[in-house]
Design brief:
Helix content is 24%, strand content 24%. With 243 residues, it is α+β, with helices and mostly antiparallel strands. Helix 1 packs antiparallel against helix 3. The relative contact order is 0.16.
C-alpha cells in the first residue's frame, strides 16, 4: 500500500527568496520528525537521487548541523536559473520496496504557482509506514508548523476525489482555517493545529480512523468524497488554480 503526503505552500515575503540550503534545512527538520516514527526515514537516511544506482548513494543530504556541503554543491551546479522552477529529489537508500521512500520538492516557480513537495511511502497492506491515523496527523501537524502550507493531504495513488480541479481529501487534509463538527459532520475527526503561541492556524480533517486509508475501499472513498462535497458547498476546498 502506498501513501503519499502532499503539501503546497508559499514563502512569506518577509523571509525573502529562499535557496536550496533554506529548503533542505526545512526538509531536515521534517526528517527528524519522521525518524521518530520510522528510523528508515530519519535525517541520516536520505540521499540525492541520481541517474544510476551508484550515483544515488553518492551524496548524503544531511549532516548533523545542516544540509551537506557536497549535496548543496551538486544542486547549485546542476540548476539552470532560467528554469521554470527549481527542484530536487531525495530517497532513503532502501531498495526493498516496502522500506523505500522518496521526496520530490519544487519551488521558485516562474508561473506563479505555489511551491510543493510530496513524500511517497510504501508499506505492506493494510498497514501504514507512519502507523495509526493519530500518528500520521501528528506528522502533518509538525509539517504545518514548518511550512505554514496552503494545504496538505495524505492519500493513496489510486484515490480519486470528486472534483478534478480541487485536491481530494483522501485520508486527511489540512486547511488553514478553523473548522468545527457543525461545518464538517462527515469528518471522523477534526484536529486543530496551533502555532508556537498556541493560536490555532488551521484544521486537519480526517476521513477514516478505523485503519489506514485505502483508495480501493469503497467505504473509505465514500467517506472522503462526502467531506469534499461538504467543503466545496461552503467554499472551503480551494481550486488548484487559486493556490
Amino acid at each position: 500500500m502506498s501513501h503519499e503526503i502532499h503539501l503546497q505552500f508559499r514563502t512569506p515575503p518577509e523571509r525573502g527568496r529562499l535557496d536550496f540550503e533554506d529548503h533542505l534545512a526545512m526538509v531536515q527538520r521534517f526528517t527528524q520528525i519522521l525518524g521518530a516514527e520510522d528510523a528508515l526515514l530519519g535525517e541520516s537516511a536520505w540521499y540525492l537521487c541520481g541517474d544510476t544506482k551508484d550515483d544515488s548513494y553518492r551524496y548524503p543530504v544531511f549532516r548533523g548541523d545542516g544540509p551537506a556541503t557536497a549535496a548543496l554543491a551538486v544542486l547549485n551546479q546542476e540548476v539552470d536559473w532560467d528554469d521554470v522552477m527549481k527542484s530536487f529529489a531525495l530517497w532513503n537508500g532502501q531498495l526493498e520496496i516496502t522500506k523505500g521512500a522518496s521526496i520530490s520538492y519544487y519551488f521558485d516557480r516562474t508561473d506563479g504557482a505555489a511551491s510543493a513537495w510530496s513524500l511517497a511511502l510504501v508499506s505492506k497492506p493494510p498497514s501504514s509506514r507512519l502507523g495509526a491515523w493519530t500518528r500520521v496527523a501528528k506528522v502533518i501537524s509538525e509539517a504545518v508548523k514548518i511550512w505554514r502550507p496552503l494545504l496538505a493531504t495524505v492519500d493513496t495513488r489510486n484515490y480519486e476525489g470528486v472534483f478534478p480541479d480541487r485536491p481530494g481529501v483522501g485520508w486527511m487534509i489540512y486547511l488553514p482555517t478553523i473548522l468545527t463538527e457543525h461545518q464538517v459532520p462527515e469528518a471522523r475527526a477534526l484536529i486543530g493545529v496551533e502555532d508556537e503561541g498556541n493560536q490555532q492556524m488551521g484544521t486537519i480533517v480526517v476521513s477514516v480512523t478505523d485503519g489506514p486509508f485505502s483508495g480501493t475501499d469503497p467505504e473509505h472513498v465514500r467517506s472522503a468524497n462526502a467531506i469534499e462535497v461538504r467543503l466545496v458547498d461552503q467554499d472551503l476546498l480551494p481550486r488548484y488554480v487559486d493556490l
